UniProtKB/TrEMBL annotation:
GO CC annotations, alphabetized: membrane
Organism the protein comes from: Fusobacterium animalis ATCC 51191
Segments forming domain FMN-binding: 36-117
Keyword Cytoplasm applies: no
Keywords, sorted A to Z: Signal
Signal sequence, renumbered to the chain: 1-23
SMART domains to which the protein is assigned, alphabetical: FMN_bind
GO MF entry, a single one: FMN binding
Name of the protein described by the UniProt record: FMN-binding domain-containing protein
């Protein structure tokens, strides 16, 4: 068996310590819904997971259930989810072109979910 070099050992130690500190974070979850745009009036339902760090809510995952159209509303929801996760800007989301009602419903649902998470201990 080969001896592990110092760089490899340090790299492994860093990964283990990083995972340990992330695992220590409490993950909060909230479910919220708001009407988007579909003929049946079925709401967009978001399940949001987040951590609290330095007094801020950091969204780590969003799962959406909806009956919006795949090409327009569904694509808009995926774009909005990615924007929230990468930019953490759930309070200032712009509408996606061509999906104004879907975007508005998503904004209402994400804001309500984050408000719920803010209240959780």
């Amino acid at each position: 068996m080969k001896k592990m070099n110092l760089k490899s050992l340090l790299a492994i130690s860093f990964v283990v310590l990083s995972l340990g500190s992330f695992a220590a974070e409490k993950v909060y979850e909230a479910k919220s819904e708001a009407r988007g745009y579909n003929e049946d009036g079925v709401p967009i339902v978001l399940t949001v997971k987040a951590i609290k760090k330095d007094g801020k809510i950091i969204v780590t995952d969003i799962v959406a259930k909806h009956q919006e159209t795949d090409k327009v509303g569904g694509a808009a929801i995926e774009q909005l989810i990615e924007e929230v996760k990468t930019k953490q800007n759930y309070n200032k989301l712009d509408s996606v072109a061509g999906a104004t009602s879907t975007s508005a419903g998503f904004r209402r649902a994400i804001r309500n979910a984050v408000k719920d998470i803010e209240k959780q201990n």
